[in-house]
Amino acid sequence: MDLSRRRARGVVGVLTAAATGLVELVRGLGSPAPRPRVVPGTTRLVESYGSGARRRGEWWVPPGTTGPLPAVVLVHGGYWRSSYDLHLQDAVAADLAGRGYLVWNIDYAPSAEPWPATLTDAAAAYDFLSAGRYAGRVDPARVAVVGHSAGGHLALWLGSRARVPSGGPGTGAFRRPALLVPQAPVASHARGTRQRLGGGAADALVGGPPAHQPERYREADPNALLPSGIRTVLLHGQADAIVPI
Predict the structure, then answer these.
(1) By CB atoms within 10 Å of each CB, which of 14, 116, 146, 218 scores lowest?
(2) What is the pTM of this model?
């Protein structure tokens, strides 16, 4: 199978799994989160990519696999707040691992920590894909980043890091992903501020409104960092009242 066909097949698989996981997430709203259906033999390992309780991620390694695998970096949402963590993505991680993907489900510093901890953590967690316990199992040509809501913002931002102004968070050499799949993302941070999403969550991330923190918005807003040059498939519901289209 040639590389283009392999990539196309991988895109379809990631989209299917991401959509399945999103359905599980929606079903869990207002009720206890569903227990992920984990394929027997799946390896799960929590590993730290820095100091601090939130600077960690969880590897999900599909059973019966060898050699490099297509990999997915999962980024949870929750308005960048401390009350949400990587376990929001467990259903997606389990589904992806069950389909043969190597998963790195990441956590990161909440917006309550000083700027730009959330962004630098997301960048460090992504970069750890090539340094962590299962780095040797990652096919670097087949890496996708999937994020939901605030995690969708971070997924888009991770794909645009090359365009962050020099000296900003996450700058420096890094291996670009092949695919971005933001789900119901805060795709425009400035617009999220105008809409007062999450009662001012966008302001809280950067420490104030655009008029007070223009440089930070230029560094954090994926919409201000286009084009990323990375294939992007955005999933969003037309009736979404939490993060409107």
Answers:
(1) 218
(2) 0.86
